[in-house]
């Protein structure tokens, strides 16, 4: 059995591994102490490690200005290191510790200048680097040997070139580098400096080319690494040493650790902890300066706007708590928190909290940068816009006209105009708001003011034209539209409104028995007509059909027939021209019996068997006519279309057709039954289709609500919609889920969840579109008030029940009535939704995905 | 990125100064030579080109400058380091520190 040699003994292998670990951890002293005896035993194996440990120790001491200790280590190193390598180290440490050692530098200079010197190329590079890094001023004298003088001249050239780079004096850089040839011992420094100049001048390709040509392990190579990382626009992780280099370039070596930790926390999905890391460890963070801290501040306050809801709620909750506890770090944090909380919480905040938080932001901003009327005006314009949003914004929700805070919105928009009378946006928004609130007089007064103040503003002219159309001031409307068109030839509203105004004018002229003039007026429409068959305002067929109705009633019936035939030729749709002519005639004749001369052709056409894809246009025509004829004026037409829908063939019927049809027809009770059939048909081919499953839920009879089972179904639909990346279904499902949660929070009873698995497919819906329970405290207050006032009279109670039927789930309505009878109406529950601003409750991180 | 940093103008710079900076920047980074930087400059200019734009930027801008804190820092460094060379003293410190790595 042979005895293993010392170099291969397991004991020494383990020792080497341990020492290498110590060296990696920069535990130089410990490594050196362990290495000393080992180097005596196995010199070839452990001497290089001993040198490495001593070099590390010496560098550390020199860096800590422990000059005499470093000198002792150097003295020892001198006995074990090659001479050239030692000189380089000696010079490097002299430079690091700030001690100029002319003697050493002279020796190095001599070594570099001596072409016969036995030192290796690597050592020459090392010596050259050390000489440059000394930035020596002590070598000012003129050396006696020309070779040394040459080296000294080149060293000074590099220093001058570096200084010229610092001062951004690019021509001087080239000039300074002239004496440094590529073969010079400082050639690699010349390349590095040229790369720096190219980088700062924007020639990145040249910079990269130069830097990548540098010899490995030289100081310029190491110094160029962080710059190369800055040039690269890759998403690959940056090596740690290059990152440290970048921190040094930016001058944040001290804050680099905090940033690294903040990055790690961010990558772990902990945005709040990441922000806290920066906040707690960087004194000037957050900041509004244009430095890296300001940039990072902007990042942290803008990032939540792109986060998933749960994450931004975490951030908002943290910021809210800071404000509530009075722990905001500085005014920048106060200002940006208020801004972020307002912008993030605009869709969920109660109006008073939104207003308060947003005004905090505006105040903080004015305190920081001084008052700015334009800025504050835009701020109040935004507030007005938010407060004028519909409280119930669901597509299938009732009472869409209820605004979040109509009065507050008007006040905010008026304040915005007062602060900056040139703020056009605020004027336009206030105009729309008045229109929504049916405050016609205020709207008209504002429009007059706007047309005087912004006489050539296209949006104002269009709004004024719309107002004139409503007031039947048709010539004035046409004048505004002509002016608006001069400013914008592409806005589709303008030709649309022009056609409407001209047709209304022609109708008036027909009425006044000025048929020829009316025809001339209608001829003016021609230039605005288009071939889009789905546009029933500007399409050629719709113009012909409307004119046919006018001719039929006031003019020439033969001509009416020709026009109708022309309309039917102009569109492939089988019934749209007939239906439009019929509806136009009914509007003109003001009939309530649903009759017109066009019925004779319309009824057979409807019975002929339409395709489902043909039905959305007639439904849209009816919705349009409903505005003028009233909700009950279209009873017959609704019935015919509903029958046509039931018997329609699903040929060529796509998801897009279904979506269009259902969106048009969903709000009308007559269409629910056939629509449910359509949905069922579609679900047979794709039972998991999320949007159709949602509609299936929506088209159920009123009162058929199961908070738990519907919630589960909606969660399943949300999951499926996410999987299919169906944004429309996802938005609608989340909205319904939110409404369902609101219903839960307002439910005065503990509703027995899911008392049987309802099979939706078996339902034959009747009555109005099902709606979710009231979503706001005000809604429930109204219900309770109605019940309280009606409870003494059974007939009044019956009336209330009738009124509320379909607006509340039956189980809730019956329960409330019983409680009203026994005088035990429940106290009103508090709304549970979180608020931004000062009253924002802390966010429960366990809240899950629900709103 | 912060448009003031992209265009290298101070926060209270007026329209003329901002336009001057914008024209100077796109002269250096044309769509052909540096399309990414060109787009960045145009976007920045749109955000602060006049008073109302600057107000809207400060009121409503929610563009996130980066994918993570470090990414944001690097984007900022890419803009500012290139624009402003290190001072001579900072350069000496940087080079000496680089030799230690």
Attribute tags:
heterodimer; A: 851 residues; mainly alpha; 41 helices; disordered N terminus; B: 101 residues; 6 helices
The helix tally of chain B amounts to: 6
Element pattern of chain B in H and E:
HHHHHH
Distance between the termini of chain A: 77 Å
Main structural class of chain A: mainly alpha
Shape of chain B: globular
Helix content of chain A: 55-70%
Strand content of chain A: under 5%
Q: Choose one word for the global shape of chain A.
A: elongated
Q: Helix/strand/pairing class of chain B, anyone?
A: mainly alpha
The radius of gyration computed from the alpha-carbon positions of chain A, rounded to a whole number of angstroms, is 41 Å
Distance between the termini of chain B: 31 Å
Mean residue pLDDT of chain B: 89
Mean pLDDT of chain A: 79
Description of the molecule:
The complex is a heterodimer of chains A (851) and B (101). Chain A has 851 residues and is mainly α. Chain A has 41 helices and no strands. The radius of gyration of chain A is 41 Å and the shape is elongated. Mean pLDDT of chain A is 79; it is low at 1-6, 392-401, 746-778 and 828-851. Chain B is mainly alpha-helical and 101 residues long. In chain B, 70% of the residues lie in helices and 0% in strands. Chain B contains six helices and no strands. The longest helix of chain B has 15 residues, at 69-83. The radius of gyration of chain B is 16 Å and the shape is globular. At the A-B interface, helix 5, helix 7, helix 8, helix 10 and helix 12 of A face helix 4, helix 5 and helix 6 of B.
Quick take:
With 851 residues, chain A is mostly helical.
Q: Which helices and strands appear, and what pairs or packs with what?
A:
The complex is a heterodimer of chains A (851) and B (101).
Chain A: H1 10-24, H2 28-41, H3 43-63, H4 67-80, H5 83-96, H6 102-113, H7 121-134, H8 146-166, H9 170-177, H10 187-200, H11 204-211, H12 219-231, H13 240-250, H14 256-267, H15 271-281, H16 292-302, H17 309-324, H18 331-345, H19 351-369, H20 373-387, H21 406-419, H22 424-436, H23 440-453, H24 458-470, H25 474-487, H26 493-511, H27 515-523, H28 540-554, H29 557-570, H30 576-589, H31 599-607, H32 616-629, H33 635-647, H34 655-665, H35 672-685, H36 690-698, H37 707-724, H38 727-746, H39 777-790, H40 794-804, H41 810-821
Helix pairs in contact in A: 1-2, 1-3, 2-3, 3-4, 3-5, 4-5, 5-6, 5-7, 6-7, 6-8, 8-9, 8-10, 9-10, 10-11, 10-12, 11-12, 12-13, 14-15, 17-18, 18-19, 19-20, 20-21, 20-22, 21-22, 22-23, 23-24, 24-25, 24-26, 25-26, 26-27, 26-28, 28-29, 28-30, 30-32, 32-34, 33-35, 34-35, 35-36, 36-37, 37-38, ...
Chain B: H1 3-7, H2 15-28, H3 35-48, H4 51-60, H5 69-83, H6 88-100
């Amino acid at each position: 059995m042979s005895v293993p040699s010392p170099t291969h003994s397991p004991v020494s292998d383990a020792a080497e591994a341990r020492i290498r670990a110590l060296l990696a951890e920069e535990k130089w002293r410990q490594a050196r102490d362990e290495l000393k005896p080992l180097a005596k035993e196995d010199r070839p194996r452990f001497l290089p490690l001993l040198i490495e440990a001593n070099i590390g120790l010496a560098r550390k001491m020199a860096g800590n200005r422990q000059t005499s200790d470093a000198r002792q280590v150097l003295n020892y190193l001198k006995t074990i290191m090659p001479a050239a390598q030692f000189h380089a180290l000696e010079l490097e440490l002299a430079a690091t510790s700030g001690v100029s050692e002319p003697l050493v530098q002279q020796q190095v200079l001599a070594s570099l200048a001596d072409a016969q010197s036995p030192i290796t190329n690597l050592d020459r590079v090392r010596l050259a680097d050390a000489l440059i890094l000394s930035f020596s001023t002590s070598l000012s004298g003129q050396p006696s040997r020309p070779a040394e003088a040459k080296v000294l001249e080149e060293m000074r050239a590099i220093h001058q070139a570096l200084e010229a780079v610092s001062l951004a004096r690019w021509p001087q850089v080239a000039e300074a580098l002239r004496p440094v040839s590529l073969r010079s011992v400082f050639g690699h420094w010349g390349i590095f400096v040229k790369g720096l100049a190219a980088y700062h001048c924007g020639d990145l390709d040249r910079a990269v080319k130069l830097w990548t040509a540098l010899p490995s392990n030289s100081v310029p190579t190491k110094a160029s690494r962080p710059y190369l990382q800055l040039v690269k626009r890759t998403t690959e992780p940056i090596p740690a040493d290059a990152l440290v280099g970048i921190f040094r370039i930016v001058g944040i070596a001290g804050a680099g650790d905090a940033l690294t930790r903040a990055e790690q926390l961010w990558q772990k999905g902990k945005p709040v902890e990441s922000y806290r890391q920066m906040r707690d460890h960087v004194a000037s963070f957050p900041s509004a300066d244009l430095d890296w801290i300001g940039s990072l501040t902007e990042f942290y306050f803008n990032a939540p706007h792109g986060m998933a809801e749960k994450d931004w709620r975490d951030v908002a909750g943290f910021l809210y708590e800071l404000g509530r506890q009075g722990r905001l770090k500085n005014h920048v944090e106060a200002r940006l928190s208020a801004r972020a909380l307002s912008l993030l919480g605009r869709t969920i905040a109660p109006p008073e909290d939104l207003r308060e938080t947003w005004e905090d932001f505006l105040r903080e901003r004015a305190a920081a940068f001084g008052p700015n009327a334009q800025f504050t005006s835009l701020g109040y314009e935004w507030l007005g816009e938010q407060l004028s949003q519909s409280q119930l914004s669901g597509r299938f929700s009732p009472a869409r006209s209820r605004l979040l805070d109509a009065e507050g919105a008007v006040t905010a928009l008026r304040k915005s105009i007062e602060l900056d009378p040139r703020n056009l946006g605020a004027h336009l928004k206030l105009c729309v708001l008045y229109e929504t609130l049916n405050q016609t007089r205020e709207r008209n007064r504002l429009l007059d003011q706007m047309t005087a103040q912004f006489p050539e503003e296209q949006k104002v002219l269009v709004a004024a034209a719309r107002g004139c159309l409503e007031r039947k001031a048709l010539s004035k409307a046409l004048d505004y539209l002509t002016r608006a068109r001069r400013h914008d030839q592409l806005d589709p509203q303008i030709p649309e409104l022009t056609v409407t105004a001209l047709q209304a004018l022609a109708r008036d002229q027909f009425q006044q028995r000025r048929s020829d003039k009316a025809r001339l007026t209608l001829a003016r429409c021609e230039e605005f007509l288009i071939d889009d068959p789905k546009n029933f305002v500007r399409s050629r067929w719709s113009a012909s059909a409307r004119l046919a109705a006018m001719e039929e009633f006031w003019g020439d019936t033969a001509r009416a027939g020709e026009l109708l035939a022309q309309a039917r030729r102009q569109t492939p749709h089988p019934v749209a021209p007939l239906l439009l002519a019929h509806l136009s005639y009914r509007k003109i004749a003001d009939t309530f019996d649903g009759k017109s001369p066009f019925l004779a052709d319309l009824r057979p056409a409807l019975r002929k068997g339409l395709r489902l894809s043909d039905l959305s246009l007639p439904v849209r025509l009816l919705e349009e006519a409903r505005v003028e004829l009233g909700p009950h004026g279209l009873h017959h037409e609704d019935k015919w279309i509903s029958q046509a829908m039931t018997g329609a063939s699903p040929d060529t019927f796509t998801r897009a057709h279904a979506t269009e049809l259902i969106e048009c027809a969903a709000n009308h009770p007559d269409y629910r039954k056939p629509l449910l059939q359509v949905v069922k048909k579609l679900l047979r081919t794709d039972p998991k289709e999320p949007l159709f499953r949602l509609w299936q839920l929506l088209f159920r009879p009123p009162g058929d609500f199961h908070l738990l089972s519907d919630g589960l179904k909606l969660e399943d639909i949300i999951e499926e919609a996410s999987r299919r990346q169906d944004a429309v279904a996802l938005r609608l499902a989340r909205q319904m889920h939110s409404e369902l949660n609101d219903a839960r929070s307002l439910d005065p009873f503990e509703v027995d969840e899911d008392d049987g698995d309802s099979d939706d497919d078996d339902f034959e819906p009747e009555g109005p579109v099902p709606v979710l329970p009231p979503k706001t405290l005000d809604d429930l207050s109204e219900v309770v008030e109605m019940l309280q006032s009606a409870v003494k009279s059974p007939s009044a109670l019956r009336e209330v029940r009738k009124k509320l039927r379909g607006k509340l789930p039956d189980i809730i309505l019956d329960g409330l009535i019983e409680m009203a009878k026994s005088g035990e109406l429940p106290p009103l529950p508090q709304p549970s939704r979180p608020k931004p601003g000062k009253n924002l409750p802390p966010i429960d991180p366990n809240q899950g995905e629900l709103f | 990125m912060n448009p003031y940093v992209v265009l290298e103008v101070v926060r209270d710079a007026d329209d003329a100064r901002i336009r001057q900076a914008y024209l100077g920047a796109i002269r250096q980074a044309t769509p052909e030579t540096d399309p990414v930087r060109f787009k960045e400059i145009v976007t920045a200019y749109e955000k602060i080109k006049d008073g109302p734009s600057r107000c809207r930027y400060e009121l409503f801008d929610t563009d996130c400058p980066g994918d993570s804190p470090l990414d944001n820092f690097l984007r900022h460094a890419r803009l500012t380091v290139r624009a402003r060379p290190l001072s001579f003293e900072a350069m000496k410190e940087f080079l000496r520190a680089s030799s230690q790595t």
